[in-house]
Design brief:
Blueprint (H helix, E strand, L loop, with lengths): L11 E3 L8 H9 L6 E6 L13 E4 L29 E4 L8 H12 L14 E5 L3 H17 L5 E6 L15 H18 L11 E6 L5 H13 L13 E4 L3 E4 L19 E5 L3 H15 L9 E5 L5 H9 L4 E4 L1 H6 L3 H7 L2
Parallel strand pairs: 1-12, 2-5, 5-6, 6-7, 7-8, 8-11, 11-12
Antiparallel strand pairs: 3-4, 4-10, 9-10
Helix pairs in contact: 1-2, 3-4, 4-5, 7-9
């Protein structure tokens, strides 16, 4: 029987975000001893066309007015000398996916872990979680690429996170809100895992698969998702769901920031300025999602082993402890990574 749990030790990592896009980003996340895994920004098989004029993000402090000429992107981060330097910070984004392809990311991983053959102290067993999206058929192809990479290097630890929850793609609303679509993705995952399971050198080298879920706000949504997870049973004797972990939660869509001129603070494809809310403002909802999913997953033998990676508004040790208290086995952050850089993981670990 394959090892079920994705091993993340220490149980702290980044979530898929713009600060996990480049080789330099990913290597810094991999090299720090304070992360137990690295999640790579969500990619497509053919890449995503990024446009700075409509794919944007901004840091803000809830309750404070944003000036009409407020900068966007990295320039919007509060400085260490500003009055808001110690305040919780949120983000709003109208971003899509990474401009790099999945194959390019597999090449980056090989470049990073290849250093161990040069006599360096680079760790070899820290997992890379490749966040991907696309159609169910494209997800099956993505798993094939990831499994082939894992098969070629038995020391490589790869996992696939299927992002079913980005709120910013006008032509593709989050599939995880629709049971029929969710079931189609889970079927594709099941077929893919069955195909490649017997080819891997060890149970640990079989790429684990998770799904990144959107924020849910009422009981029926949680029950729908858990019902799909229960029905998506593994073909392996003794195992439950085909899903090894869920990442919970993605940004809250349809969120809007108006600046002091009462105009949208960001641009997007439709011109509405609507985007995904993250950071401190999302934290209570993220905690509620993790707590609710843990309770429901534990009620059935087929889902009780599904791991939860808790995401949403964690930027210090207390926030991480709250996430673990409600059921997250590992805690990830994005907005805090953008604000503080890779040092945020030491900050969370040590309580600095």
């Amino acid at each position: 029987m394959a090892a079920k749990k994705l091993k993340i030790n220490p149980p702290l990592l980044n979530s898929a975000c713009p600060w996990a896009t480049t080789l330099e980003d990913i290597k810094a996340l991999y090299d720090t001893p304070y992360t137990g895994a690295v999640t790579i920004r969500t990619s497509l098989l053919e890449g995503f066309t990024h446009d700075d004029s409509v794919h944007q993000y901004i840091f803000f402090t809830p309750g404070k007015t944003i000036p009409g000429d407020a900068p966007k992107g990295e320039a919007s981060k509060p400085s260490s000398s500003s009055s808001s330097a110690s305040e919780p910070v949120s983000t709003l984004n109208t971003l899509g996916y990474s401009p790099l392809t999945l194959s390019e990311y597999l090449g980056i991983i090989n470049e990073i872990v290849g250093q161990r053959h040069l006599g360096t102290d680079t760790p070899t067993k820290k997992p890379f979680i490749l966040s991907v999206t696309g159609t169910p058929d494209e997800i099956a192809m993505a798993y094939a690429l990831i499994a082939n990479a894992a098969e070629m290097d038995e020391d490589l630890r790869l996992a696939m996170e299927v992002n079913l929850s980005c709120p910013n793609i006008a032509s593709a609303p989050p599939p995880a809100y629709d049971k029929k679509q969710l079931d189609e993705y889970l079927e594709a995952i099941s077929d893919s895992k069955s195909t490649y399971r017997g080819r891997m050198a060890t149970p640990d080298s079989v790429p684990k698969v998770g799904i990144k879920l959107p924020p849910y706000t009422y009981t029926g949504q949680f029950e729908m998702a858990v019902d799909s997870l229960r029905n998506a049973k593994s073909s392996e004797p003794g195992e439950g769901s085909v899903v090894d972990f869920i990442t919970c939660t993605n940004t809250l869509g349809n969120s809007l920031l108006l600046n002091s001129n009462l105009e949208p603070a960001l641009s997007n494809e439709s011109g509405s300025g609507l985007g995904g809310l993250a950071g401190a403002a999302l934290h209570p909802l993220a905690l509620g999602n993790v707590a609710t999913f843990r309770k429901l997953l534990d009620q059935d033998p087929s889902t009780k082993d599904i791991m939860i990676i808790g995401v949403g508004g964690v930027e210090d040790k207390n926030g991480a402890e709250r996430m673990r208290k409600v059921g997250a086995e590992a805690v990830a952050c994005a907005s805090a990574l953008g604000r503080y850089g890779v040092s945020v993981f030491e900050r969370i670990t040590k309580g600095a």
